[in-house]
């Protein structure tokens, strides 16, 4: 997939996040569902008229080992698993919002206290399981297959203008589970009016994030703090780094 990273800018009152509307990437894509508890389906925005049920799904991160990567904040630096990393995406949004007085600085201490209060029993990765259900069998070209359905838990945090999903799956290269966090922003809340028409080539949509609009930032920090031990340690390091330079 092509790389169209999210953009993060600041104006007088908001952090402005830009997400690709027309070109799905490895981290962002547009999906559609009839209600919040439905399973979202990928939506081809260039071929179809965008509806009010469409939303941008962003697998948001918080760091990057490359100080020259798009959206990286070099001032926010920490060590994770022995590697030097820099604040990006969620960390960049929060840092820029604090630095420009868009977010109240007292929230930083609240998030530090929250991350420090999380215990082993609170961690999502430690309290889930993936189950298998046998659905029968089917013969195809002389081969008989057992049909097995794997059920993955999904934690869904619903707010009025955003949702945060935590999807727990098997780790690709190690034993155990991994939690992946997605921020879901309704397309109808974007600054551009895109509902009722197809997307334009390489079009981006932008969301204002501040104390009262699309403010998923604080909940996202809390969700990462709860997702796993590694995420919790990283979040505490990022918040300490931000606290040390503001």
Structure description:
- The chain has about 250 residues and is an alpha+beta fold.
- The protein has one domain.
- Helices cover about 20% and strands about 35% of the residues.
- The protein is built from four helices and 14 strands.
- It has helices at about 90-100, 105-115, 215-225, 230-245; strands at about 5-10, 15-20, 30, 40, 55-60, 65, 75-80, 85, 130-140, 145-150, 155-160, 165-170, 175-185, 205-210.
- The strands form four sheets. It has a six-stranded antiparallel beta sheet with strand order 4-3-5-13-12-11. The chain has a three-stranded antiparallel beta sheet with strand order 1-2-14.
- Helix 2 (about 105-115) runs parallel beside helix 3 and helix 2 (about 105-115) packs antiparallel against helix 4.
- The longest helix has 17 residues, at about 230-245.
- The protein is globular.
Uncertain segments are none
Arrangement of strands in the largest sheet: 4-3-5-13-12-11
| Count of individual domains | 1
Please outline the major beta sheet: 6 strands, antiparallel
Q: Give the CA-CA distance, first to last residue.
A: 37 Å
Order of SSEs: EEEEEEEEHHEEEEEEHH
Global structural class: alpha+beta
Q: On the 0-100 scale, what is the average pLDDT?
A: 93
Tertiary shape: globular
**How many helices in DSSP terms?**
4
Question: How big is the Rg?
Answer: 19 Å
Specify the helix fraction band.
10-25%
Report the β-strand fraction as a percent range: 25-35%
The total strand number stands at: 14
């Amino acid at each position: 997939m092509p790389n169209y990273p999210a953009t993060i800018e600041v104006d007088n009152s908001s952090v402005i996040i830009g997400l690709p509307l027309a070109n799905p990437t490895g981290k962002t894509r547009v999906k559609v569902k009839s209600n919040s508890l439905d399973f979202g389906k990928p939506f081809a925005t260039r071929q179809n008229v965008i509806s009010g049920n469409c939303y941008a799904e962003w697998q948001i991160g918080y760091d990057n080992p490359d100080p020259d990567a798009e959206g990286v904040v070099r001032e926010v630096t920490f060590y994770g698993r022995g590697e030097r990393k820099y604040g990006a995406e969620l960390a960049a949004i929060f840092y820029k919002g604090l630095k420009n007085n868009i977010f109240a600085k007292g929230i930083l201490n609240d998030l530090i206290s929250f991350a420090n209060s999380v215990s082993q029993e609170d961690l999502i990765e430690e309290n889930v399981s993936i189950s298998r259900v046998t659905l029968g069998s089917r013969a195809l070209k002389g081969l008989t297959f057992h049909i097995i359905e794997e059920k993955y838990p999904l934690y869904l945090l619903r707010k009025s203008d955003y949702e945060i999903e935590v999807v727990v799956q098997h780790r690709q290269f190690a034993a155990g589970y991994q939690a992946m966090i997605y921020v879901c922003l309704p397309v109808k809340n974007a600054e551009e009016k895109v509902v009722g028409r197809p997307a334009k080539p390489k079009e981006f949509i932008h969301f204002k994030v501040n104390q009262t609009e699309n403010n998923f930032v604080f909940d996202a920090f809390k969700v990462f703090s709860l997702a796993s031990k590694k995420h919790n340690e990283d979040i505490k390091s990022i918040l300490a780094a931000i606290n040390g330079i503001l």
